[in-house]
Each structure stands twice: as structure tokens, then as C-alpha cells.
Amino acid sequence: MSSKSKRQRTDQAAGTETAKQKKVKGKKQSDAGYGSGDFSGGWDVDSYRTDYESEEHWELRRNFMLAHKDTYDEDRLVCLAQTFINMEFLGCKYPSETMHLVAEMSKEIAEEFRRKRDQRLKRTFVSASDAAEQRAKGRRGASAKPPLEAQPSRRSNQDSRLCFGGGEPINLFEGLRFGQLVLFLAGGRSCLRNSCTASNLKYDERASLEHQATDTTKNAEVLVNDQVIATGQGENLKVAKQAAFKQALLLLQTHCYSIKLNASRQTIKVEKSQTGLNINVTKESADSLGDPKLDASNKGYRMMRLMGWTGGGLGSEKQGREEPVGYLLKNNRTGLGSKNQHGNLADYRKLIENYVNSDDMRDMQFEPTFSKEERASFHQMASRLGLRSSSYGTGETRRLLITKKVSYSTILTEVLSRQNPKFCDRYFVQVPMQKAHLFPGHVAGLELENMCE
């Protein structure tokens, strides 16, 4: 009797120990920070597919989740599957423990995917001899071809190879909420208005019609094509509009392409000396040096402050100029219309024409060694040749910058699709989130400078 009761106590102790081990194991899994630890597998894998995900990416991610659905918690498995895709397609790096775990879980799935991809590439690429043979057949003309019924059976394979690379080009604006609107990040608060005008869209900032203003709080809203896209709140209408502008900029950058000039881009510097023209390359473009503006030491600045001016340009839309009006001190007795003895306008015109006919995308910057009259002539030449010209600086630091006019769509095509180094050195591009999977190298956010001016 005593031996029987002893055996029962031993079995109970063993059962209690097993239950404790299961409980501890379950607690460790649930405490790992990946969810509740439910491994029932009753959740729908297909519900995690996104609209912008390609078939290839989704198939690989789906196979990963299906392979481990019954052994891993839902939240944890979804995170690990996305980590696997980032490692496989984007080359992302993670802590060594995470990478070892994902590599072990995806071993068979990744090997199968890579094997199929290698076979697909082998079928796709055509050897040089095959391509030469096809070109030779094309030159012989249709008369040298045998009748259709006499064509060899491998004709379909040849046709499939000939079609490689001849598909439709990528539509960069397909499916975007704001269509072909592109943000050119320059000009401070005028950025969105100028970008919408360039894309033939209506832009407006106004007091909110839905939220009632109070003595201490004002509300504003930003509209694109008469649709409210952002709202803001502040102690006065100006502050409220600035808040709404920031929200609108954040929203539009999420759904539109953004372009920004590289401040340290290469620029062709043209300088006049007693021996002729000196042409060099600089990375200090005139539009990035910054123009001197009024500060508190200026009497006019203090007078404007006393009259209620808070900064920025004058006018209902802050369209007035912000920098002082430049002046030029004459140091000779020649008339304004006289020709410069040290410069030949015909040579300068030829220089600018050669710049237009070249494929050089760098700006052409004329240094302050040129006179005011010469800069005026350069402005006229640039206008006649379809170039854009702007002056920066005041007095003895006045510079003229001539640039080529390029459409936003051309910039996007050259930077994103063709990766043209001439454009990539000049422009930074941020793609909308909907196109991030196509251009993962251009998802970094670009900031607008002087946003509050």
C-alpha cells in the first residue's frame, strides 16, 4: 500500500514539473515583446498584402509566413517576414541574433527563390552570338524568311528573347493621389504655391470655415484644387497658416515627388581678368551663398519692427523682396551704353551658345568681375536662348547665374530611371511612399529651408 501511494506521489510531482516547464516556456515566448504567444494559426496571411507590393515580393513574404504560421506568434512572424524581405531585396542589416534567426527560418524558402531567379535570368539573357544572328536575319528582309509553316519550332523562344527589354516604361505618376504634382523645395513658404502653379493646380491658404475662431485661437486650412488637405491652429491667423503649411508639406511629400537642388553641386565659374576669361569649377554656387539681409543693427529694420512688421516679404502673400536693393558705384566716366574696352560681347555670346548646345547640366556663374552692363547683356542673351538667369548678391559681390530649363518629369526620369550622373550631381529626389519599393535609394526625406519666411 505504501509503495502504491509513493508511486502516485512521484507521478503527480512529474506532472507538476512538466506543467511548470510549459508555463515558463509560454511565458518566455509571450514576454519576448512579439504578441500574446498564441500559435493557433487561425489568422489570415493574405490580409497582410499591401497595394504597392509586387508579386515577387509578396510571394516570397507569403511563403515565409505560411512556413512558420503554426510555430510563431502572428505579430512576431509578420515582423520577421518583413525583415527577411528587407534583407533579401534591399540588403538591410540587423543585429546578428536577428539575422541568424531569419537566415535559419528562410533557408529553404530563400534557396528555392534564388534557384528560380537564376533559371529565369538564364532564359532571359541572350548571348552575343544569338543577338548578332537575329540582327543578320532582320537585315536580310522578309523575302529571305521561310514560310510560316516552315519556321522551326524554336521560333517562339527566339521571339520571347527578342521582346526582352521592350516592355512599357514605368509610369512614375501612376496611382498617385495628386497626379503629376511635383514639389520643388525652394523659396520657403512660396514652395507649395509655386509647385502647384507649375503643375496647373490651384493652391490657397485661408481661415478655416469649419472651426470657429476665438479671441485666443485662430484656425487656418490649406487647399489644393479647392479640397482641404491640411489644417493648423495658432494664436493668430499667420501662425495658424504656418502650422497648416507644415502639415500640408508633410502630406504632399508623402504622396508626391520632391526635388531639391544640391547646394554643393559643381558650377562652372566664369571670371574676367586682364589676360582674358578664366573658367573653373566650383562647388559654391551663388544661390547657396546667401544674400545679406537686414538685421537689428539697421535703422530701417527697427522702424519696420515698430510698425508691426514681423519678417518676410511685404504684401498680402509675402510676395515682396526680402533683401536690400543692390547698388553699383561707378568708378569711371564712361556712359552706361558704352562698350567695355576689356570685353567682347560676341565672344561671351559664343560661350553661352556653346553651353546651350552641350549636354552639361552645371550652372554657369559669372563672377563680380563683370560690369553691370555686361550682366544686363547676359540676361538678354539667356532669355533669347531659352535659359534661366538670376542675380545674387549686392554691390561688389553681385553674381549672375545662368541655368538650363529642365522639366520636373525629365529630372525624375534622369535621376530615378536612368541614374544620369549629370542630373544626380545636381538634384536630390525624394519619392512618395507609394513608389518606395521601386526606388529604395530615394526614400530619405528632403527638408525645405526657410520654411517660416
Automatic annotation (TrEMBL):
Classification via SMART domains: G_patch
Gene Ontology molecular function: any one: RNA binding
Every R3H domain range: 342-406
Protein name: NF-kappa-B-repressing factor
Domain G-patch residues, every copy: 296-341
Occurrences of domain DRBM (ranges): 221-254
Organism ancestry: Eukaryota, Metazoa, Ecdysozoa, Arthropoda, Hexapoda
Keyword tags: RNA-binding
Source species: Drosophila ananassae (Fruit fly)
Gene Ontology biological-process annotations: regulation of gene expression
All residue ranges annotated as the XRN2-binding (XTBD) domain in the record: 45-129
Residue ranges, annotated region (Disordered): 1-37, 124-160
CDD domains reported for this sequence: R3H_NRF
